Amino acid sequence: EERKKIESKRQQTKKMMQFNPNSVPVQPIVSLTPFIGGKPWIKARVVDKGEIRTWNKPTSTGKLFSCTLVDETASIRLTFFNEGVEQYFPVVNNGSVYYFNGFSIKNSNRRFNSVANDYELSADRDAQVHIARDAASAALPTQRYNFVPIHVLAHKEKGSTVDVLAVVVAVGEP
């Protein structure tokens, strides 16, 4: 078992050393759908990295961690599972920009995901994550907002996540 882990780390390091960001076409997050085909690469900033969580059901056990990825076009949630957690939790850091590949795209599960995107990503040990070292990476946003006018709040579903920007002009007793 330990030998397999060492060999896996060796292969991962070799992949990282051979990675050339100029040789991969990068898809904007907004263009990702389950029907895209192939294995798209995305370049995004990591925000809202969560802690490792575990689950234990009669049919399966495992661990996961999630983070939100942000580029110039949109945000999307990425969840790593099992060996992907071991491999990438120590590597992926809030605020840093990475190239990602080898994930699956599925419909967003609103029970666990509040990111404003119809889709979400999941990844395991077969994913590829490479730090982006180019100057353009600094220009990627650190957060995405989808502001709604205050009068729209009354029509939103209970429990919805919204972004509101307002100026308080007076404070008084209700």
What does this structure look like?
- The protein has 174 residues and is α+β, with helices and mostly antiparallel strands.
- Strands 1, 2, 3, 4, 5, 6, 7 and 8 form an 8-stranded mixed β-sheet that branches.
- A hairpin with a 4-residue loop joins strand 3 and strand 4.
- The longest helix is centred in the first third of the chain and has 17 residues.
- The chain starts with a helix and ends in a 43-residue tail after the last strand.
Topology:
Layout: H1 2-18, E1 42-47, E2 53-56, E3 61-70, E4 75-81, H2 83-88, E5 97-101, E6 104-107, E7 119-123, E8 128-131
Parallel strand pairs: 4-7
Antiparallel strand pairs: 1-3, 1-5, 2-3, 3-4, 5-8, 6-7
Structural class: alpha+beta
Number of strands: 8
Largest sheet: 8 strands, mixed
Integer average pLDDT: 84
* Share in helix: 10-25%
Radius of gyration: 19 Å
Estimate the strand proportion.
Answer: 25-35%
First CA to last CA: what distance?
64 Å
Q: Main attributes?
A:
single chain; 174 residues; alpha+beta; eight-stranded mixed sheet; 2 helices; 13% helix; globular
Structure, briefly:
The protein has about 170 residues and is α+β, with helices and mostly antiparallel strands. It is about 15% helix and about 25% strand.
